Each structure stands twice: as structure tokens, then as C-alpha cells.
Amino acid sequence: MGVGHAHGSHAHSSGHAHSSGHARPTGHAGARYRIRLACAFVLTVVFFVVELVAGLISGSLALLSDAGHMAADVVALGAALAATVIASRPDRSGRRTFGHYRVEIFASGLAVLIMSGMGVYVLVEAFRRLGSDAPVATGTMLLVGGLGLVVNIISLLLLRSGSSESLAVRGAYLEVMADAAGSVGVIAAALLIRATGSTVWDLVVAVAIAVFIVVRAVMLGRQVVTVLAQHAPAGVDPAAVESELASVRGVEEVHDLHLWTLTSGMDVGTVHLVTAPGVPHSGVLDEARRVLREGHGIEHATVQLETAGVVECRQPGW
């Protein structure tokens, strides 16, 4: 029996596997956007304080809900930033055989919980305020909403490129995007209150912001669950991978194929290949590695080779 362990320099690499249109970035994706995350984090922290004070002074639920969402931004950005630092640290215990890479996914999960909690809170508070007609300072709403939109746009520009590669960065990006929509809502509410004289628009916008937050949380949550449940990586078809491996010269059978995402930009896999008697294992191993790496972006793959009629693979009992 021969065992091949194929992997690229996935810990720090920023390169790409090229071939067949399935190439994917390798290495820990979030770490490449650490500085941008830090800049967005500082901007968000400063503006959160400003918006919270303004919301309390103005009495606007829309402004307070946006401030609450900004607080969620602070936690999400901070968690994403911490995850990129922790994930790149080597494990000294010897027990974390995959290192700290999954920290990024847990940070994304935290962002989902925060977004969901904030959305529910605003909906409850809006329901509680139904029927009341508390005065709202529209001038403060316009000023703070405008400033918030500027801060959000800057943060979105900083995080946009990383949102397609890293789940942690994507979680932060979606948080900021939802907050930008919230800032637009605050401005719209202030203008509508001025035009109609009714503060009900404050509640309407607050509810709209809350619904938007919850929808975004569900979308990100599905991605987090997909990774934690170890589904096949997005864009990778296990049946196609198995078919291509079966077509490798000398391979008679493919079994125990497992493909999953460890963290953003790091797809891994294991597979057993049964070869015909007399076929050199080195050639089969090299071709199998090429199929996985260049055809499907699986940089870290463990390939076990077995010779038909010589070694019988013991199937797991689970």
C-alpha cells in the first residue's frame, strides 16, 4: 500500500492554482486583508460612539437601531481582525493538527449571532413604540446619517475585494453593507418626518433596517453552517472529481473521497485509489495530485494508493 500526501504552501501562500477554470486562491485569505480590516475597525469604533450619543439626544429609534448595528459592526470587525491574527499563529500544543484556521469561521458565526440579536431587538423596540408620538430631532438624524454613510462607504471600499475570499471578511463586509443601508434609511426617515410631520416614519425605517439585518444574517449563517458541516467546497462537484480521478491511467477504483473547506481559501480532501497490479504508484500519485490541485483547487490532499488484489482496504465502522 502506498500513501501520498500532497499539499502546497497553504499557510502563507497568496498564489492561485490555475487550470480548467476552477482555480481558487490558496493560503489563509483573511490574513491578506488584516490592515484593511484594522482601518475599517478604527473608523467604525469612532463613529459608533458619535452615533450612539446622537441617537440618545435625538430620540430617534432609527438612529439608535443604526447605532446598535454599528456596535455589531465593531464586534464583527474586531472578531474578524482577531481571527486573522490567531489563525496565522503556529500551534505549539501539538494537538491542533489543522492549526487555528477554523477561528475565522467561528468569528463569522459570532457576526451572525450579533446581527440576528440586533435585528430582533429593533423589531421588539419598534413594536413597543407603536402608538407613541415622541419628538424626533431630524436635524441630528440627517447630520449623523450622512456622516455614517460616508464612513460605511469607506469601509466597504476597504473590504470589498476580500469579501469574496474570506468568510470572516465577508461577515464584516455584510455588516458594513447593512449599516450603510441603515444610514440611508436614517436620512430617508428624517426627510419624511420633515415632509409629513409624522414620526411613524422613524419606526418604519427602523423595522426595515431590522429585516435587512436578519436576512443578511441568515445568508451568512448558511455559509458558516456549510463549512462547519464539512460540505464539499462551493464550486467543487465531488462526482466530477471522482470521475476525473477514475480516469487517471492505472486507476481501477476510487473510494472514500472526502472534500471540505477548512477555512476561506483552504480546501482539503482525502481519497483512496485502487491501482492495477504492476502500475507504478508514483505516476498515479502525481497525476491524482494534479487533478485535485489544478482542476479543482484542492491544494492539501491526502491520497492513499492501494493495489488491486494485494491490499484490501478496511472500511471504517462508522
TrEMBL record:
Residue ranges that the Swiss-Prot or TrEMBL entry lists as coiled coil: none
Compositionally biased intervals (Basic residues): 7-21
Ion transport in keyword set: yes
Residues covered by the Cation efflux protein transmembrane domain: 39-228
Transmembrane segments: 37-64, 70-89, 101-124, 136-159, 171-193, 199-219
Main location (coarse class): membrane
Domain spans labelled Cation efflux protein cytoplasmic: 237-307
Keywords: Ion transport, Membrane, Transmembrane, Transmembrane helix, Transport
Family membership noted in the UniProt record: Belongs to the cation diffusion facilitator (CDF) transporter (TC 2.A.4) family. SLC30A subfamily.
Pfam families: Cation_efflux (PF01545), ZT_dimer (PF16916)
Region of interest (Disordered), residue spans: 1-25
Compartments, as annotated in UniProt: Membrane
Name of the molecule in the record: Cation diffusion facilitator family transporter
Organism in which the protein naturally occurs: Dietzia cercidiphylli
Membrane-related topology note: Multi-pass membrane protein
InterPro entries, per the entry: Cation_efflux, Cation_efflux_CTD, Cation_efflux_CTD_sf, Cation_efflux_TM, Cation_efflux_TMD_sf, CDF/SLC30A
